[in-house]
Write a structure and sequence with these properties.
The protein is an alpha/beta fold. The chain has five helices and eight strands, in the order βαβαβαβαββββα. It has a single domain, classed as Flavodoxin domain (Rossmann fold). Strands 1, 2, 3, 4, 5 and 6 form a six-stranded parallel sheet that branches. Strands 7-8 form a two-stranded antiparallel ribbon. Bound molecules: flavin mononucleotide (FMN).
Amino acid sequence: MKKIGIIVGSLREQSYNRMIAATVPELSLDEEAAYEYISIADLPLYNADIDVGDGPEAVRLYREAIRGADGLLIVSPEYNSGIPGVLKNALDWASTPTRSAALIHKPVGIVGATPGPKGTILSQQQIRQTLEATQAWVLPFQKMYISQVMEKVDAERGRLTDETTLKYLKRYVQTLLRWIDQSRGLQ
Ligand SMILES: Cc1cc2nc3c(=O)[nH]c(=O)nc-3n(C[C@H](O)[C@H](O)[C@H](O)COP(=O)(O)O)c2cc1C
């Protein structure tokens, strides 16, 4: 069974993106998978001076979790037409050491949700750009944008409830699982 590490690009407790992420393990997919949430909340700000050896303990655990996953799913908001700083910081920590970084050849899918109308398009472009710089293998042929997210969730339960969006999310995660198989052929 494949293991998917889920990284949420918002630290907010009532985060819509966290609600989307919490829905993923409950989708009934054709292929069963295991899921692990990889927290980025305790990572220090990236500083090459402390990026020595295994780095700080929070970084070591975070990198280990990424290494242990067959693929990653990033679920992130957009801030000021771009990638949230906390997520960029986390991706930078997973991009070193240069030759053995946790993100190298890691299959990654990107999902984003916003109360706004444009579905995090600009944020996802920057996330993709950063991941490509790290040599991660970003799912190339499908995108998943969730706009007007407040109308598509049950905020009390913290879950995505909109039927159409659930269908697209299911299709996206299934494509990511297939991408993990396909990308093995790239090595
Ligand atoms: C500093 C800041 C900048 C934002 N910029 C954007 C933006 O460029 N595009 C967008 O769609 N939403 C933007 N928003 C609104 C976020 O999409 C909204 O706060 C969303 O709920 C954050 O995601 P979360 O619910 O997962 O925490 C911004 C919010 C903040 C706090």
